[in-house]
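The methods section describes the discrete structure representation at length, but only in general terms. An entry of this sort, consisting of the sequence and the corresponding backbone structure tokens, reads as follows:
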Amino acid sequence: MPLQRRDLLKIAFATIATAAAVPRIALAAESYPTRSVRLIVGFPVGGPVDIAGRVIAPWLSERLGQPFIVENQPGESGNVATRSVVKAEPDGHTLLVCGPVNTINTTLFKELDFDFGRDITPVAGLYQVPLVIEVHPSVPIRTVSELVAYAKANPGKLKVGFAGRGTPQHIGIELFKTMTGIDVTLVPYLGSRPALSDLLAGSIHAMFDPMPSSIAHIKRGELVPIAVTTLSRSESLPDVPIAADTVAGYEAGSWFGIGAPRATPKDIVDKLNAEVNAALATPSIKQKLAELGGNMMPGSQAQFEQFIVQETEKYAGVIRLAGLAAK
């Protein structure tokens, strides 16, 4: 049947509109960002996620010509911040500083009104760090063996602080408890910084904390590190042994990256990924990360996305092993 003139006009206009959309998307990426960019952090100032945001923000501000501003939105173990980014306009001007807490929460919290794997686009990895098992100097523990022996001899007496439910610190402690059979009292906080304040004051006895937020206190002698939770020693604390030397197979850690609302244009995501990778290749950023005990996570957007999938699956297994109650 021959096309009517009205149908031909519809096809022509649709073709023109499709062709025009391509340069508009490219132009959006070319001009991005057009105003300040918010880097949303789900924990208080001074914690490891906050530090990660403040490491990369100055570089992105300088390279992309607009301020990248770290905005702290603590609450619900990072879920408040994630929800804020999920609901934001997907134009690259609201980004999430993410970490294992986001992949953990996918399994741990069953009633979330968003899905991190579905609603956040992984943009770029930043760096990975070990947790440090550390105690207040007044605590009579200097090794992992002594920690286990003390906890078994004094069930529930040892107060271990952590940066909120679902954080890698929380999962790391729970896994350690499961593998060693110890009984300790867990004390949750809104983030690492308030937990560290109480540890420094002696109000709690120990922490499993990401290295960036604790390393300065350790080097000043304010806290005693007894182990790192990776399978090799940290170059930043080379004299501190690994926990797996005592608890075979034990491993925990943390990582940080950047995410964006799911519908953010690919060209903008690729532009941000390229700038983050450029930052990780610069001597000044490398030195800063080394001081924090971090190992860089360069790579493509697709590689970071696959890493997120693997982390989500890994933590789902750990949560089941530790018998954590999901909500």
